[in-house]
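Continuing the series of single-chain predictions for the mutant panel. This is the parent chain; the variants come on the following pages.
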Amino acid sequence: MPNTYIVTCKKDATPEQVQAAKQHAIDQGGKIGHEYSLIKGFSVTFDSDSIRTLEEHEHIDAVEADQEVKLY
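Parent structure:
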């Protein structure tokens, strides 16, 4: 079953650096889903456990599993 992650790029990342991070995800076998405008980031789906290479990318700040958020 594929896993979806939210990828947040560094705050000072340029549009070209965000694009480079997305291309890196695609090169690792990921499929880009939603591209966010409020944050410099995107969602990516992987069929395998390739997420480690994203966490080490120079323009990426954080990678988190996409999950439902509940407000109490």
